[in-house]
Amino acid sequence: MDRITRTPTRIGRSVDEITGSRRLRRTRKTDWSRRLVQENRLTVDDLIWPIFLVDGENKREPLPAMPGVFRLSVDMAAQEAKRAASLGIPAIATFPYIDHALKDQTGSHACHADNLINRATRAIKDAAPDIGIITDAALDPFTDHGHDGILRDGIIVNDETVDQVVAAALEQARAGSDIIAPSDMMDGRIGAIRDALDADGFQDVAIMSYATKFSSAFYGPYREAIGTSGLLKGDKKTYYLDPANSNEAMREAEQDLAEGADMLMVKPGMPYLDIIHRLKETFAVPTFAYQVSGEFTMIKAAAANGWIDGERAMLESLLAFKRAGCDGILTYFAPDVAELLAS
User: Fold this and answer.
1) 314 FRET partner, CA 20 to 30 A, in 14, 44, 240, 321?
2) Is 213 a catalytic residue?
3) What pLDDT was estimated at residue 1?
4) Whole-structure pTM over 0.85, yes or no?
5) Catalytic residue among 103, 125, 213, 236
6) What is the mean pLDDT of residues 53-78?
7) Where are the domains of the chain?
């Protein structure tokens, strides 16, 4: 162990004189003391696993831009849900890759009771009844233009989109979804979904608001995964948040809570740790981050090239969300982390 020196420094005072004998390294000198004073911890209870769905049977389609991530057929998704439950992961979020023949301008297939999302929800509930299921009522996987809303004369029409999103949310609740998480960022969608769920007897179905979903460069691999990357006409800046704005994000969150949201989500995650912290400090409600595909892929790519320690970077990135105030994180790393924490 280094011996504490009392020798004066070059400016004439000893370290004890400079610090007033407050040596902050004391609690960092051993493993046991570092563990004793650790302020935040990552556990399996913090993990939500986003998975991608595809029609068919016994399918595991690899996604080149997301190493280790697959599109899963409903039967395989049910098996993976059982594995996730055995690892202690609390919840799964599902996102579909829809056959282009089922897409149209209004995303009408989102409202079908037997669409891919709803079939997967029922299968997962049968296979792993104790795991939570989070579904997104946004229309972008179902539209032929890749937008989250209904496109009319080059404009995403808000109110008509909300009606469609509500209809999709109701079918998801009927299939067994535990949390509706609409990511479309239309005005009024949270209140409209809450009213519809309550009127239909789904008072216990919660709403996780994508209250602060930013118009980000980090979504690319996700859009490939759900099959919208080549379809998108224009951009989503008229409804997603400007990455430069934090006060606007606070107003969006406040509005969604007033309309009945039970919890908030920030998307993407790592570039917006300041937003996570402000939301948690201001509203003190359950707050989540989505570590999106671009964040995941950057860590994976750098690790594959030997530029960083992938495992350490993975854990550090997730711990950063906890430090910022997150109650949980949607992350494609979820099963890897769960296995690591259990070892």
Assistant:
1) 240
2) yes
3) 45
4) yes
5) 213
6) 96
7) 1-38, 42-342
